[in-house]
């Protein structure tokens, strides 16, 4: 099954559709925050912290401690990271550029939102994202990864060859 996911051309096409769908979801969410003006994550963070107490807490205490001690004091930075992170992940997934890294960053954001008590489409995006991540290079086969990854590997190999020749001298 894993071999099919990582090597099959038909699966690669299906993964491209999934990748574009996830990318579109990310880019529209991020772009709405950027163009909507005044996006501030501090309200969301405070709400998540408040949901960590009471009779039925939806946020774990350890996550609330992180939000209270790290995220809330730096809400301006986190707001910037969320807005632009969503847009950049979306663009990368739609273009199929650095697909594995982009989907990994998207998964981190999805899990962060889930940990903060938001269900929404995060579970669905995590499930689809895991398929894309496990598929590896096959997920970016019908995208810019088809050209970018071999190019970068060539550059790395050239540097390694040059450094090994320099070490021999």
Structure description:
- It is a single chain.
- This protein is mostly helical.
- It is built from eight helices and no strands.
- The radius of gyration is 20 Å and the shape is globular.
- The termini are far apart.
Structural class assignment: mainly alpha
Order of helices and strands: HHHHHHHH
Question: Can you count the beta strands?
Answer: 0
Distance between the termini: 48 Å
Shape: globular
- Whole-angstrom Rg: 20 Å
- Individual helix count: 8
Which band does the percent of strand residues land in? under 5%
- Main beta-sheet annotation: none
Helical proportion, percent range: over 70%
Instruction: Give average pLDDT, whole number.
Output: 93
Provide the low-confidence segments as ranges: none
Primary descriptors:
169 residues, globular
Topology:
Layout: H1 2-7, H2 9-36, H3 42-50, H4 61-71, H5 75-95, H6 99-115, H7 122-135, H8 145-168
Short overview:
This protein has 169 residues and is an all-alpha fold. It has helices at residues 2-7, 9-36, 42-50, 61-71, 75-95, 99-115, 122-135, 145-168.
């Amino acid at each position: 099954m894993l071999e099919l996911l990582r090597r099959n051309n038909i699966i690669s096409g299906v993964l491209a559709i999934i990748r574009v769908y996830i990318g579109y979801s990310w880019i529209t969410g991020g772009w709405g925050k950027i163009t909507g003006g005044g996006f501030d994550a501090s309200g969301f963070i405070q709400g998540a912290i408040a949901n960590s107490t009471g009779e039925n807490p939806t946020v774990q205490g350890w996550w609330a401690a992180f939000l209270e001690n790290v995220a809330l004091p730096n809400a301006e930075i986190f707001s910037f990271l969320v807005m632009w992170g969503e847009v950049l992940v979306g663009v990368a997934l739609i273009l199929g550029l650095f697909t594995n890294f982009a989907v990994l960053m998207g998964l981190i954001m999805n899990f962060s939102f889930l940990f903060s008590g938001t269900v929404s489409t995060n579970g669905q995006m995590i499930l689809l994202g895991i398929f894309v991540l496990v598929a590896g290079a096959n997920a970016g086969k019908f995208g810019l990864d088809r050209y970018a990854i071999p190019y970068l590997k060539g550059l790395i190999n050239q540097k390694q060859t040059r450094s090994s020749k320099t070490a021999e001298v």
